[in-house]
Amino acid sequence: MTAPIGIGQFVGAPVRARTFEGVSLAENTYAAGLRVAAHAHDAPLLSLVLQGNATEDVGSRTRELGAQSLLYTPSFETHAHRFLTPGRWLNVQFTAAWFARVGAGERALPKAPQLVRGTAVNWASRIGAELREPDAVSRLAIEGALLLLVSELSRLPGLGEPRRPRWLGVVEDAIEASLTEPPTVADLAALAGVHASHLLRTFRRHHGATVANYARQRRIEQARAAIAQGDRSLSAIALAAGFADQSHFTRVFRRAFGETPGAYARSLRGDALLQDALLRDD
């Protein structure tokens, strides 16, 4: 493997980028079929998949990535990617000096790569929104969102802490399979084979959210991933996500990600006809 890649030197074709003291971020595109050989970075890397499907190899493990996947890769961690379809990612790095300067917490960041869910995805999305439509206070907004994001990372269970129970995956899959009408806590506890109170405590410890808030978060993330695919209108996506009111969908989306569904869609595609169609749904 070659020497670690320096901060701000992201793989992929840059669409837009910004750098300021201790922080570097860029939106990059990747061609279908591209294989990125095993490499490492000299600073922690956060990558939010905006569009496309890919795989990541870390050690002996391979995992599939799609829109709304948020990856955390520690500095000097070797990984490789293969892009199955055309992709667009938001990549963010920060130095140890920045992490110390902002006082991100007494706990260290995770030592192993993580596929992150929950509100951390929202903060990464807000960083992307500020990068796409900057104004006089965008740097402040980016640093604030990044601080909240790394705070979420710092809370992830570390070595020596209770391990993730296997039944938690069963619960997550059941929620994922019916996001518009999630199972009750009693149903989830029965599936997991644990007491409801134990399920709620464990779920909150691992996700930093209640079961209900987690389901709401995944529902809006799923809608955002559908927008990235670009094969349905925003009104159809809102209805499929359980939003009977288009304006309600827009309000929830903006509150979660810092931009409207139409603005997000237009940022990913430059087709004028598509923009006109989306504007009618915005």
Automatic annotation (TrEMBL):
The residue ranges crossing the membrane are none
Question: Where in the numbering of this chain does the HTH araC/xylS-type domain appear?
Answer: 169-267
Task: Name the Gene3D superfamilies on file.
Answer: Homeodomain-like (1.10.10.60), Jelly Rolls (2.60.120.10)
**One matching Pfam family, short form?**
HTH_18
- List, alphabetically, the PROSITE patterns matched: HTH_ARAC_FAMILY_1, HTH_ARAC_FAMILY_2
Q: Which GO terms describe its molecular function?
A: DNA-binding transcription factor activity; sequence-specific DNA binding
Q: Which SUPFAM superfamilies match?
A: Homeodomain-like (SSF46689), RmlC-like cupins (SSF51182)
**Keywords, A to Z?**
DNA-binding, Transcription, Transcription regulation
Q: Which InterPro entries match?
A: AraC-bd, AraC_XylS_family_regulators, Homeodomain-like_sf, HTH_AraC, HTH_AraC-typ_CS, RmlC-like_jellyroll, RmlC_Cupin_sf, Tscrpt_reg_AraC-type_HTH
PANTHER family given in the database record: HTH-TYPE TRANSCRIPTIONAL ACTIVATOR RHAS-RELATED
What is the protein name for this chain?
Helix-turn-helix, AraC domain-containing protein
Name its species: Gemmatirosa kalamazoonensis
